[in-house]
Specification:
Strand order of the largest sheet: 14-15-16-13-12-17-18
EC number: 1.2.1.-
Protein name: NAD-dependent succinate-semialdehyde dehydrogenase
Strand content: 15-25%
Bound molecules: NADP nicotinamide-adenine-dinucleotide phosphate
Family: Belongs to the aldehyde dehydrogenase family.
Shape: globular
Structural class: alpha/beta
Organism: Nocardia niwae
Number of helices: 14
GO molecular function, one term: oxidoreductase activity
Length: 485
Amino acid sequence: MVSERELLESVPTQLWIGGRPVDATGAGTFPVHNPATGEVLTHVADATPEDALRALDAAVAAQDAWAATPARERGEILRAVFERITARAEEFALLMTLEMGKALPESRNEVRYGAEFFRWFSEEAARVHGRYLHAPSGTGRIMVHKQPVGPCLAITPWNFPLAMGTRKIGPALAAGCTMIVKPASATPLTMLLLAQLCSEAGLPDGVLSVLTSSHSGAVTQPLLDDSRLRKLTFTGSTEVGKKLVEKSANRLLRTSMELGGNAPFVVFADADVDAAVQGAMLAKLRNGGEACTAANRFHVHNSVLEEFTTKLVEAMESSVRLGPGADPDTTLGPLINEEQLRTVGDLVDDAVAKGARVRIGGKAPDGPGWFYPATVLSDVPPQARILREEVFGPVAPIVGFDTEEQGLAAANDTEFGLVSYVYTRDLDRALRIAEGLESGMVGVNRGVISDPAAPFGGVKESGFGREGGTEGIEEYLSTKYIALT
Ligand code: NAP
């Protein structure tokens, strides 16, 4: 196992363009911080708009040859990347913990999940099918052919520094597209290491570039304005996603949007309460609550409300250890930065000021680092902001309901629609509620739903497009109809 210092010294810190590390034009850099201490880990290259166009030149130059590379060969390169990530899993895990803060077991889970997109799409590369049929009118033949959309731009968030990239890179490369990735400025190192590893695994130069930047709007604008770019795939906040859709409208650029969530976790009277508490611990505390899939609000039938609340508090008390992510005992690391710490604290304070009761946690410890404890709020009034806004932290607000209709209506009372969780032992009710929930994904008696073999994505203001599953590769393919006699 390498030390933190050795690891940081070995990770590329320049831009990755055309299959090699290069300095940013003007040689600018920006710092990357450790959320557990607030200290600077290292500095990385700060891309300029000119660098963005250099990356696009490289992507365009590589596009035709990559699309013409046999699907089996593309798949084998993806498989080799999967093997290499897996072989270096501990390095990736430590790197993510250092730059993002999450506890090491969480980082290890992300490495497994993130790598899996290369394995899954290495298999999907060979399964891109079209169609051939005789026109029902008898006037000719119809051939439907799938082609790669062309050079893509991926913009990714900081909460899953590896997986939010691989969920896009895997299918894009499998489909025969080239890609430029703009990772979050808080967590650029993981993506730079991945790009280096892709080159080592045989990915041709220019197929994947990485632009690290502290001014994301300015650096991505020339790409969105350039007719050679054919697709934007974004994961991040709904606010930024809306801006990017607006910017993309000018060229009618094809877009996929994986945006914010406000997941309801609904527990019915007939639920196995212990299983629901176990599921709640995962749905709330996975990734420290900094997940778009995190349960944001708990709607619990009044007959089991106090039992569920007490057991959730006990589970947090007995199993959560707040501390630096790299410490072996830690199960809950710090939040990403000071701003996020303030946002979470403000949401809790607002709920408490309006009448919510703190059952555990509720107060950030003194620094250094941006820590917030696992927190449960009961008696949360409907006007509390925490029920409407994405918390992105380890805070569980709990509210009661009486009838199935009320539970479902409360769950759907949000502009977001990414994922919902439901706990019940009644199969009819489970299906009825799953069908009635306005979200792209539903977990039934499960607190974690993400799976590379399943289509991940939202409805309403949580975005559009799907990542993973057999659907994921479609985002990077265009359909061509060839009419034959
Ligand atoms: P964010 O602020 O929207 O940033 C996401 C990415 O967009 C970052 O790379 C950011 O760069 C970049 N960006 C910001 N403003 C931009 C602009 N004007 N033009 C181009 N790029 C811009 O989101 P975040 O705080 O990193 O991530 C948290 C959010 O992501 C949450 O809302 C969460 O729910 C969502 N998320 C959704 C999914 C999903 O699959 N639906 C998965 C994970 C996270 P900088 O880092 O330089 O600001």
